[in-house]
Design a protein that fits this description.
Oligomer: heterodimer
Largest sheet of chain B: 7 strands, antiparallel
Number of helices of chain B: 16
Radius of gyration of chain A: 24 Å
Number of domains of chain B: 4
Strand order of the largest sheet of chain B: 15-12-14-13-17-18-16
Number of domains of chain A: 4
CATH class of the largest domain in chain B: Alpha Beta
Number of helices of chain A: 24
Strand content of chain A: 5-15%
Structural class of chain B: alpha+beta
Helix content of chain B: 25-40%
Strand order of the largest sheet of chain A: 2-4-3-5-6
Largest sheet of chain A: 5 strands, mixed
Low-confidence stretches of chain B: 467-478
Strand content of chain B: 15-25%
Structural class of chain A: alpha/beta
Largest interface: A-B, 46 and 71 residues
Number of strands of chain B: 19
Helix content of chain A: 40-55%
CATH topology of the largest domain in chain A: Rossmann fold
Mean pLDDT of chain B: 91
Chain lengths: 450, 478
């Protein structure tokens, strides 16, 4: 039996290292509501497998639970925002898959977004990062500037100089190289604007409602054809469609980049611009932002109520179409497809079934389930430009699953995912076409476009 | 920087080690946030050899070693005290082979429980142990705590589904026991000895998992009751009738509310308790079994009894149950749960006792548990930043568990002892038995380097969860 010679040594568990210096120096001052919501996390860990970054690297600090712990540690003054800490927070995709998984209902995105806003003011940024951010904030959010930026690349494409662009891309910083690689291979030199009004052309003669269409910045420059197809479907379903001329960027790029004031400014402009029953969009990232205006402007005395009202009227196209009594689409499509859930549709807007139901109405279309269909592809807004390595790893993971399905077409309701998956497929030599569900529906209703 | 860091980095690479204070911070606790300790480093090996090499290096420096899976444990088993080094298995997540003919899958220890079943979902087979954390928890962790779950009532706990193990001993040697899908019956069952040892004997690195066929036929019902006592009597009566349901789960009013606000399943809001129940087996027999159960429930004044035959609803029902612990976050910032097992006939009185203790210590308690196993899970709600409440919770836990032992129960059914219930081991076992436990540990780990002072009271070290906040409060060394 065990002889006990000396009494056991007693050790005590400590809650984190003691704060250094001024014990009340808190690197992060969260709003009370946000801080309280951080405390809703009971550290159960059920979010771990939902998190793409944790799934990739297995680091607790790159899991939702770990990041909440870091943010709470910063707010409590237990740790300081060193580069390592902010790197873990920056590596978050803000895909919100953890919110879907969380049984406690932690509103994670509010926490990470507020933390980023407050920490970003303290961060020194490198020259190149500032240039890239300049492009994000000042070009991507302005259609005209975006078209100007794309013009040289488009001209080169038209002249058949694609390979030269690809080569020149290698001379660019990695983020800009990624930007040029995502440019869809065809498109007009100068994308024309949408009309202000498209009258209903109901299939059954019944006019149903008036819909305001939100076109999106990148959407209306690179994916205007999807916008036109969306409007055509709405018209066919009996909706008058107005394209509010004063609409602007949704604000997501600024908001996710920690620039709160510009995001609020966009939100107010859009709230002023739309007076329709519904505000319909076809870009998951924009839609999620539009639905978040109520939260964004909650403290604005002039806009808080209007923002709530606005948010209640926002619909993704796939949410609205099934409510409009559309007939069975007449044109069969003989294709095998798979569906990738855009995070900002599945997790931020909780829309997963309607797009599948809509695609299910198309005759002869075979849909194969995608493994981990709701795991982020790495696009995540401008994440693929700011965190190119993780973004690539996640795209490769996504593509492996897509390849397994045998489908040559991947359908997804977000331009960001579409461009990212498409460009990564090209880089890896995967034969794949990424399309918006609206494009397939349009073909099923109206036949193949000229 | 500690000299061990460079040596470890040479083994696992610079991407495989964390040692900066602010990164270690997130490893200070697991799913039991009362127990906290900052490790010296966390390493992320990707194969067994790396684990063994790291262990040898750690031995040279006389450092404590703490294995950690997904960190979902509820007893502080994965917390590193005394500046120990955590070996995280989170990157050892390869499903190495699946052999349906011989009903075995070989996995690395970090593979998530559900990841294995998901990977073979289309075959109709699964890995049976189903702790509520199964989406996140690792199979290595399940082995270490001998995890239970919802369907263990009929299908058994983890040890029943493990055919063999590979593990690294605290001196760096690699061992395997019963590592083939055959029953060798040679000698003492080392595999079973490692199962449930909570990472205090060895570091489990590879597991031969028994696979079973999903039940083809089942009936799922939920019944509501006006009192927890009636629900408990039903459980007791069902067990006494000889029927073995796959699972028989109970939720009280507080828990029903939390689950309902999280998942909007459509549970009634004005009931005191609910039983969720499933039987599986031969189709023709099931209706008869179900009828008997329904009758027993009615005899105990059950209100509404709903059958849940739609497979989608059924899946939603069990998901809601499995996420119930997490949903507690909607009611309180911190929680701590006990998982004592008691004789099922004692369930009604035990539930009454839980309610009394809740009043005595002024701590809200809500219940969701594996009623069929007599495995109660009173969940205590508190604020982890309030030392007074933490103390009350610890004292309440102690009194409750002592009561459970007194009525013929045990201090843990499935969550493990960890650091949390260590002080109750002498209530559970006599001195000779505790000495034997320690001797067995020393056979594996003579220098007591791996997860010492957890599960088995150590003669070297005692871990204090909290310093006493007032001299007159006993249990400072809880």
């Amino acid at each position: 039996m065990t002889p006990t010679t000396t009494p056991p040594r007693i050790i005590t568990g400590l809650s984190g290292p003691p704060p250094e210096g001024d014990s009340h120096q808190r690197a992060l001052q969260l709003e009370q509501q946000t801080y309280d919501r951080a405390l809703d996390c009971v550290h159960c860990g059920l979010c771990l497998p939902a998190c793409p970054t944790y799934t990739e690297n297995g680091l607790e600090a790159d899991s939702p639970r770990g990041r909440i712990y870091l943010m709470k540690g910063l707010a409590d003054g237990k740790i300081q925002p060193t580069e390592t800490v902010t790197n873990h927070l920056d590596l978050c995709l803000d895909c919100r898959a953890c919110e879907t998984a969380c049984p406690s209902g932690v509103v994670y995105h509010e926490l990470i977004e507020e933390s980023r806003v407050k920490l970003s003011t303290k961060k020194r940024t490198r020259m190149m990062d500032r240039l890239v951010h300049g492009v994000f904030f000042h070009v991507f959010t302005k259609r005209r500037r975006l078209k100007l930026l794309l013009l040289p690349a488009r001209i080169a494409q038209k002249l058949g100089l694609g390979r030269i662009i690809e080569k020149s891309g290698r001379l660019l910083p990695v983020q800009l190289e990624k930007m040029q690689s995502m440019l869809p291979p065809d498109g007009p030199l100068w994308e024309s604007n949408l009309n202000k009004f498209y009258p209903a052309t109901p299939h059954d003669g019944v006019k149903r409602s008036t819909v305001g269409f939100f076109a999106g910045c990148v959407g209306s420059v690179l994916f205007q054809h999807v916008n036109r197809q969306t409007i055509a479907l709405l018209n066919h379903a009996g909706c008058d469609v107005t394209v509010a001329p004063l609409q602007t960027c949704c604000g997501a790029i600024d908001h996710h980049g920690g620039r709160l004031e510009p995001a609020k400014c966009y939100a107010r402009k859009n709230i002023d611009a739309f007076d329709t029953d519904y505000i319909v969009n076809n870009i998951a990232g924009c839609g999620a932002m539009l639905k978040d205006y109520a939260h964004l402007l909650r403290d604005d005395p002039n806009y808080a109520q209007r923002a709530r009202d606005f948010t209640n009227r926002v619909r993704d196209i796939s949410e609205l179409l099934p409510q409009l009594e559309m007939p069975q689409p007449p044109h069969p499509i003989e294709q095998t497809i798979t569906y990738h859930d855009a995070c900002h549709l599945a997790h931020a807007q909780k829309v997963t079934k309607p797009p599948r139901q809509l695609l299910g109405t198309i005759a002869k279309l075979q849909m194969i389930d995608l493994v981990e269909s709701d795991m982020c592809c790495g696009a995540a807004g401008t994440y693929n430009l700011s965190q190119p390595i993780m973004a690539r790893e996640l795209a490769e993971r996504k593509l492996q699953h897509v390849i397994q399905t045998g489908a040559k077409t991947c359908v997804t309701g977000n331009v960001g995912c579409a461009m990212h998956i498409q460009s990564e497929a090209k880089r890896l030599g995967v034969d794949l076409k990424v399309v918006h569900p609206v494009s397939l529906l349009h073909e099923a209703y109206f036949g193949i476009e000229e | 920087m500690h000299p061990v860091i460079d040596q470890l980095r040479a083994i696992v690479g610079s991407q495989g080690i964390l040692y900066e204070q602010d990164e270690l911070f997130v490893y200070e606790c697991d799913g039991f946030p009362i127990a906290k300790g900052i490790p010296l480093a966390v390493i992320f090996p990707t194969n067994t050899q790396q684990v063994a090499d790291c262990v040898k290096v750690l031995n040279q420096h006389n450092l404590q070693i703490v294995p950690r899976g997904s960190g979902t444990g509820l007893a502080g088993g994965a917390v590193a005290y005394d500046r120990g080094v955590i070996i995280s298995l989170s990157r050892m997540k390869k499903i190495e082979s699946v052999d349906l003919d011989n009903r075995v899958a070989v996995v690395q220890a970090g593979v998530r429980n559900l990841a294995l079943s998901d990977s073979i979902a289309d075959t109709g087979w699964r890995f049976s142990p189903d702790p509520s954390s199964q989406r996140a928890s690792s199979i290595g962790g399940n082995v270490s705590t001998n995890a239970g779950g919802i369907n263990t009532l009929k299908h058994g706990v983890t040890v029943c589904h493990i055919l063999g193990l590979e593990y690294v001993l605290p001196d760096g040697k690699i061992c395997t026991s019963r590592a083939e899908p055959i029953y060798d019956g040679i000698g003492a069952d080392l595999t079973s000895l490692i199962c449930g040892s909570e990472g205090t004997f060895a570091i489990v690195t590879r597991i031969w998992c028994r696979l079973v066929v999903n039940p083809k036929y089942f009936r799922t019902v939920y019944a509501v009751f006006g009192s927890t006592s009636d629900a408990c009597k039903t459980v007791s009566d069902v067990i006494a009738s000889g029927i073995v349901p796959t699972s028989m789960e109970m939720m009280d009013a507080g828990m029903i509310q939390a689950v309902e606000s999280a998942f909007h399943f459509g549970f009634p809001s004005d009931v005191a308790a609910m039983l969720l129940l499933e039987v599986d087996g031969i189709d023709q027999v099931l209706d008869e079994e179900l009828a008997s159960i329904v009758q027993l429930a009615r005899d105990n004044n059950a209100g509404d009894i709903q059958q849940c035959s739609d497979p989608v609803r059924r899946a939603e029902l069990w998901t809601a149950r499995k996420k119930a612990f997490g949903a507690v976050g909607r009611m309180s910032h911190s929680y701590c749960t006990q998982d004592a097992c008691i004789p099922r006939s004692k369930l009604p009185e035990a539930m009454e006792h839980v309610a009394k203790l809740s009043e005595k210590y002024d701590i809200t308690i809500t219940n969701v548990f594996h009623a069929g196993d007599g495995n109660i899970h009173p969940i205590m709600l508190f604020d982890e930043d309030d030392p007074g409440q933490v103390q009350q919770v610890l004292l309440l836990s102690k009194e409750l568990l002592e009561y459970c032992v007194d009525i013929g129960g045990t201090i843990t059914g499935e969550h493990g002892v960890g650091v949390e219930k260590l002080h109750l081991m002498d209530k559970m076992f006599n001195r000779n038995t505790l000495d034997l436990f320690l001797d067995v540990k020393k056979t594996f780990d003579p220098d007591q380097r791996i997860n010492d002072a957890k599960l088995i009271p150590s003669d070297k070290t005692t871990i204090e969860l909290l310093k006493p906040i007032a001299a007159n409060i006993p249990g400072g060394a809880l």
